[in-house]
Amino acid sequence: MLVQTKRFTIAEYHRLDDIGLLQKENHEARTELIRGEIVFMAVKGTKHTVCCSNVNRELNKLVADRAIIRCQDPILLPPDGQPEPDFVIVRDRSDNYLDGHPLPEDILLVIEIADSSLIYDRDVKGAMYAEAGISDYWLFNLGDNRLEAYSEPYCDAQGKGNYTQRRYMFSHQQISIPAFPDLQMEISKILSNISSNFT
Question: Which helix (H) or strand (E) holds 108?
Answer without folding.
Answer: strand 107-114
